[in-house]
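Journal club prep — side note

Before the paper discussion, L.F. wants everyone to see what a predicted structure for a comparable chain looks like in token form. Sequence:
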Amino acid sequence: MKKSKAETAETRKRIVEVAAKAFRRQGIDGTGVAEIMAAAGLTHGGFYRHFSSKEQLVTEAMSASAKNLLLDSNVAAEQGAQALMDVFQDYVTQDYRDAREDGCPLAANGSELARADETTRHNATDSFRKIVANIAPYLRVHEGEDGTDTALSLLTNMVGALTIARIVDDPALSDRILATTRRRIARLIDVDVPLQQKEADPA
């Protein structure tokens, strides 16, 4: 029986969600199409009814993951600086560090994304830019810098900290990296910035 468009779309969405988790858990190169389809409860042969290549799936999976991260920052920024503080500090906790498959693709797949195709890299870049724009109005800035400079520094620090905290084999060192980064977040996000400043800020 031929599937409806809605059923086909739902199946495609399930494949993307399964792939996104698998890519974050074990890497893009370390995850095969057959494995993804099996985890989604589908046959390997059905893959090409939805995607032209693994590269296309990677692009969509990374975009879906990035949209989730972007959504978190969107929602928090609309609620104000304190909500943003909570989201960002949660990013560098032990729970987030250990939940690799549910976390940020920039930290989980960064080195592979750097070698990805043009479309995947563009999507990751676009999401990163939007997160920077969301948080820039709420940051304390140093002389000679603006909110965008500070946002770039903070976000790259967070992604790097999470990555290194996962790499090191010393639990105490890993926890210290995360704690140090949480303190930096607390110093840089200005919880006294009124919500209306974001609405007026063109960034």
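L.F.'s comment for the group: Residues 53-200 form a domain with the Tetracycline Repressor; domain 2 fold (CATH 1.10.357.10). Keep this in mind when we get to the figures.
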